[in-house]
Each structure stands twice: as C-alpha cells, then as structure tokens.
Amino acid sequence: MGISTATSPQGNLAGAPARIPELDALRAFAVFAVLFHHYFRGYVPTFGWMGVDFFFVLSGYFITTILLAARGERNYYLRFYMRRALRILPLYYIRSQLDEKVYEAGIKVSDEELAKLAIERDPFHGGWNYRFSPRAESSDV
Question: Tens digit of pLDDT for each residue in 86-128?
Fold first, then answer.
C-alpha cells in the first residue's frame, strides 16, 4: 500500500498523505457495526463496541496526519480547530433547534405506536434511544 502526497482525507494539504481506500473501508465497517448494534440487536450478533473502537483509532490517525502535515504552516493549530468547528457546529445548532421545537410542541410517541412500526425504546440507553424490535408484531404495517 503506497502512500502518495497528493491530497489528505481533509482536502488539499501540502505533504499530507492521499486518501487511503482501505482506511475508508475500515471507517465504513465501524459505522455499520455501530448501526447494526443499535438497530438490529436481537436479529444478528453485533459488534458495536468494535465499531466505536475502530472509529476512535481512525479519527486519531486522521487528525494526527492532518496536524503533522500542516505543522510548518502559520497558525496551523488554530486553522485546524476552526475548520472542525465550521464543519460540526452548524449541524449541532440545527439539531438542537429541531429538538427544542419538538420539545416545545409536546410531540410524544407512545410505546404502542412504536410497536406498530416494529420499533421499541432501548432500555439499555435509558429509553432515549430506539431500535428495531424483533419481538414486535407488525403484520398490519
């Protein structure tokens, strides 16, 4: 597996390694492992913990690679965090506003309505998370 210095996972940074397809495949595995853990527990064996571990390791690698590639540039550390903030904070703000509107409207879904959709509250996460339910009777859906 050769590494060129054309582009980085975050875009064009001089000296940063190019995107590595094998690491993208590991990242996809990590995401799907977590999704399967949350939504299909009871249907198939899940490896959510492994997905979380992979994702943290890959994130650490990508962040370190970006910081090392930009080390010689002026204000590289500040620029790195500004780029991350501009990528994360707008979505965080939109989601928090949406949650606030749902809360203000008093929108609640009963457990019976969720069961019709073969969805149940996940007691492992205190009831605030949802998952597909292998035990739900959903013949009328």
Answer: 999 999 999 899 888 877 887 776 767 666 666 666 666 555 5
In total, the chain counts a number of residues equal to 141
Domain boundaries, the chain: 1-73, 75-106, 108-141
> Residues of 77-98 as b/e, b for ≥16 C-beta within 10 angstroms?
eeebeeeeeeeeeeeeeeeeee
Helix%, strand%, coil% for the chain, nearest 5? 55, 5, 35
Write out the H or E segment, with its range, that includes residue 35: helix 21-39
Calpha distance 130→21 (Å, rounded): 32
For residue 121, which phi and psi values (nearest 5 degrees)? Answer: -70, 140
* Residues 32-71 pLDDT 10s: 888 887 777 666 666 778 888 888 999 899 889 889 988 8
Q: Quote the pTM value.
A: 0.57
List all residues 6 or more positions away from 40 whose beta carbon is below 8 Å from its beta carbon.
46, 131, 132
Task: Centre a 10 Å sphere on the Cβ of residue 7 and count the other Cβ atoms it contains.
Answer: 13
